[in-house]
Amino acid sequence: MRTKKQNLFSGLLSYPLLGLIYTLSVLPLPILYLLSDGIYLLLYRTFSYRVNVTRSNLQRALPEKTVAELRMIERRFYHHLCDVIVETIKSFTISPQQLSKRMKLLNPEVLQSMYATGHKMIAVTGHYGNWEWAAITLPLQSAYAPQGVYLAIKDPVMNKAMIGSRSRFGIDLLEAGKIFQELESRKDILSITGFIADQSPSRPEKGLWLDFLNQDTVVATGTEKYASMYEMAVAFGKIRKVKRGYYTLEYELVTANAALNAPGDVSKQHTAILERIIREEPEYWLWSHKRWKHKRPTDFQTPQPHERQ
């Protein structure tokens, strides 16, 4: 629990930072990409931000690559990460028309067909491409009532600012720590809910252990659990980077009704899709994340994802 003194101190730091973010956000993207190049020099070349984590992840995930190939992927990843930083800043003021051109949905008929049959949906993706832009364009993609799951930022000032930026186009944000209550209160709404499912789960004992990128990996099963509980369709959002500042989004239907799938099947399928697109263009995944910090216990028994936990 944060004290009033802590909140006051964070506000003294956060308000000037927010002022800078809004000032930068009104700049054209070509200028922001010059800033991205500068951030790259600082983040990667000067301070080596999580380079050891990134390098270790790449070596273990892609052992078939040569050292030179891995270093090239590493450099491209940091360039892309810095682009995502300035693109997230741009999200504070970008227009829906401009963003729709820069995050182009290739197959809206997948959402349209599910909506026409009255199926609620979960759109699941990973920290790949520009996941922020993919999430905030959800209200622009279909007639569904859009929802997105988010992790609250500890700083209340920055948390409020990020909620405002992410919800500018009409998405309702559901706090991850209260996700069951949030979904239950909206169970009668024909909605599409965005999940990002590739982070390391906070409760690995509730996860599903799979082979992912050549490693024993615990996968969060929230997507499958809630999709099964509310008989939702599940589609994976495949994000591709066409060129700097331009992406495509294509949905691959995993299931029309998760409740009809065997336990673990939905989690296995959407994890396999993510691995496939990472292998095709690995530089656009978030390699600096400490994804493999959990080790499988020798006596581990995977829980049933369909059961409420």
* Tally of individual helices: 11
Oligomer, anyone? single chain
Secondary-structure element series: HHHHHEHEHEHEHEEEHEEH
Query: In what order do the strands lie side by side in the largest sheet?
Result: 1-9-8-2-5-3-4
| Shape, principal axes of CA atoms | globular
End-to-end gap: 25 Å
Q: Which radius of gyration do the C-alpha atoms yield?
A: 20 Å
Percent of residues in beta strands: 15-25%
> Total number of β-strand segments?
9
How many domains make up the 3D coordinates?
1
| Uncertain runs | none
Explain this structure to me?
By secondary structure, the chain is α/β, with parallel strands linked by helices. It has one domain. It contains 11 helices and 9 strands. The chain has helices at residues 4-25, 29-46, 51-61, 67-90, 96-102, 109-116, 131-136, 156-166, 179-185, 222-229, 265-280; strands at 103-105, 121-125, 145-150, 172-175, 191-196, 208-212, 215-219, 233-243, 246-255. A hairpin with a 2-residue loop joins strand 8 and strand 9 (246-255). Helix 2 (29-46) crosses helix 4. It starts with a helix and ends in a 29-residue tail after the last helix. The mean pLDDT is 92.
What's the SSE blueprint?
Blueprint: H1 4-25, H2 29-46, H3 51-61, H4 67-90, H5 96-102, E1 103-105, H6 109-116, E2 121-125, H7 131-136, E3 145-150, H8 156-166, E4 172-175, H9 179-185, E5 191-196, E6 208-212, E7 215-219, H10 222-229, E8 233-243, E9 246-255, H11 265-280
Parallel strand pairs: 1-9, 2-5, 2-8, 3-4, 3-5
Antiparallel strand pairs: 6-7, 8-9
